Amino acid sequence: MRNGQTVETWNEDGGTSTEQSYKNIPFYLTNRGYGVLVNHPQRVSFEVGSEKVSKVQFSVEGEYLEYFVIDGPTPKAVLNRYTQFTGRPALPPAWSFGLWLTTSFTTKL
């Protein structure tokens, strides 16, 4: 994210014609030694240094908001603590890093 940008995250099948991701994680990492995880199952909006917001603002629909501030002191330390908190995935088997095909796109030969 850059200054003046608003990013909305939510999980939705956007297909192949949009930039929408399948699994959004409402987490942002700063260069100031902390990250913020917004624990909300619906749309989360982040706004960074715009005309309306001088720093960072996040908002959700509804009346309930839960978020976690994860301190560093470095981005690597923040990510380590974030994955310690949320869980770390198992390493996929070696064969899964081989050739990968998809049916979402067609190729003309």
From TrEMBL:
**What SUPFAM superfamilies does its record include?**
Galactose mutarotase-like (SSF74650)
Report the GO molecular function annotations: alpha-D-xyloside xylohydrolase; carbohydrate binding
Q: Which Gene3D superfamilies did the record assign?
A: Glycosidases, glycosyl hydrolase (family 31)
In this chain, the stretch annotated as Disordered covers 1-20
Record-linked InterPro entries:
Gal_mutarotase_sf_dom (IPR011013), Glyco_hydro_31_N_dom (IPR025887)
For the protein in the UniProt heading, the enzyme class is hydrolase
Glycoside hydrolase family 31 N-terminal domain residues are 2-47
Domain of life assignment: Bacteria
**Pfam families given in the database record:** Gal_mutarotas_2
Sorted UniProt keywords: Glycosidase, Hydrolase
Q: For this protein, what is the EC number?
A: 3.2.1.177
A GO biological process held by the record: carbohydrate metabolic process
* UniProt-listed PANTHER family: ALPHA-GLUCOSIDASE, ALPHA-XYLOSIDASE
What this protein is called in its record is Alpha-xylosidase
> What is the native source organism of this protein?
Klebsiella pneumoniae
Tell me the classification of the organism that encodes this protein.
Bacteria, Pseudomonadati, Pseudomonadota, Gammaproteobacteria, Enterobacterales
**What gene is this protein translated from?**
yicI_2
